[in-house]
Amino acid sequence: MLTPLRSTLIVMLLAFAGTAPFSGQEATQNPTTPQSQPGDPWWKHAVIYEVYPRSFRDSNGDGVGDMNGITSRLDYLKDLGIDAIWITPMYPSPQIDFGYDIANYEAFDPQYGTMADFDRLVSEAKKRNIRVIMDYVANHTSDQNAWFQESRSSRANPKRDWYIWRDGKGRGKPPNNWQSWFGHSAWTFDEKTGQWYYHYFYVQQPDLNWRNPEVRKAMYDVLRFWLDHGAAGFRIDAISRLFEDPNLHDDPILPGKNAFGDPNIQHKYTDDLPEVHDVLREMRSLVDRYPGDPVLISEADEPTIQDLDKMYGPNNDEIQLPMDFKVADLNKLSAPEFRRLLDEIEFNPLEGQPYFFFNNHDQARTWDRYGDGVHNEQIAKLMAALLLTTHATPQMYYGEEIGMRTTVPTRIEDVKDPVGRTGWPKDKGRDGERTPMQWDKSPNAGFSTAPKTWLPVPPSAAQYNVAAEQYDPNSIFNFYKHVIALRHEISALRDGSYVAVNRDDPNVLAYLRKAKNGTDPVLVALNMSAQPETVNFTLKGFGVDGKSLHVLLAAPQPANSELSLTGVKLEPFGVLIAAVE
Ligand code: NOJ
Q1: Distance (Å, rounded) from C-alpha 46 to C-alpha 43?
Q2: Reported pTM
Q3: How much is the mean pLDDT over the chain?
């Protein structure tokens, strides 16, 4: 007899074929969405999707993606099972760092659209139960921001202290040895007033002085502005860089040189200063005053698990979802290493919600970082299963669901990212992971009708695109869609506990997810090796009585969907997600 759970899953499987996600029709609702769960805040169960607006969909044929383009693809996102989108900055900007250099925090760059377009995006998203998370670049502005223009105009200007200005150590000598993340000194000399300003990132991205109460107030007003416009929360950029040592101690020098040819340094006096946490608490108390559980997500590659834990705040009163860069950056398929990292964050003392991602606009796509050149499609499915079946809130990046790859420029003249121009050829920058979304096999992969897109469309678009993959039951796209649906549907996967099993297995990462009431346990087994593996499971010690496995999703699909707990065969990089019965 079919249990209600199994029959729902079969209905879902049948529903995969033949949908037309971006045909303009309203997509059907998922039977159980995270939002409909009583009690928990929505972000604990949401699947969050990062949209890089320049590259998602160009609605006006100028070769650059825009807001109306995103709105036109909301049905696609709904069909995929996405609950919230985080959109990287669309504010007015000289686009030196493609939006991370903000000239005005409370408006939109016309190339992306207008405030009315944004209001429409938010309201159309809401109809589909999709929330919109804004990017909040707190550490720095653009040098074209009116605040900086005033600040640099004279030493006596009332906004002088809104940025970090210091005297140098002598002619042509910066105040100390601090380095920019984007290469070379973090100080730039300003002829007009004869002082140096500090920029953790590019020369055109001066750091705000968060010790100044007026800066704090102005930046908190920015949060209010977007919450009032319907933002569901913020992804906070570079949060650990907010404060610097006021005494300007030199950073310790480490052996070797970096990609920019500078000595390696430890950013001891510019990263993770304790003052960051006072600001995080203030931000959290501000957003907590708004209805709808707005979320704060932090971008910060914390050096240790202790630093990552601290982001939750001593009373869970800082960041709800700190991004886990340790998991994201492992860069090798190692079951023992993933097991250790998952345990580390899963059992954090504050029981803060883990937050995982593998792809974003700053790092090479998983296809290239984890693929072995032989089993890449299979590995893409394995990474999807890992991202979407642990207890952590998952964050995807546009195009990972169709197996997009990193396509780096081959000539420096073609490089758009400033990092790539400074770091060439050792660091070719981040253009490779920002190429246009591959919608179909028409010109420009259906991204734009322009003669030339801002970054070229990769050749792989001919084979890996939404239109082609939608109708292929074995595609990466349908694997993602299926695993997201399972995550929404099955309580154990959505909000259940996590425990690693077969802890000594060197090749297979396996874990058990159990619903809060202990029913319907789900076992996930991921073969992280290029050899077939045979695995035995003894689950009694984990409080699970079941004696067999019912396959919910597997790649490749086994011949039989009922398996014993012993002798479970996994193909190279094989994935098994099964109900324990
Ligand atoms: C992190 C952002 O993700 C990256 O794209 C940007 O260049 C830096 N912060 C500076 O804002």
Answers
A1: 5
A2: 0.94
A3: 93
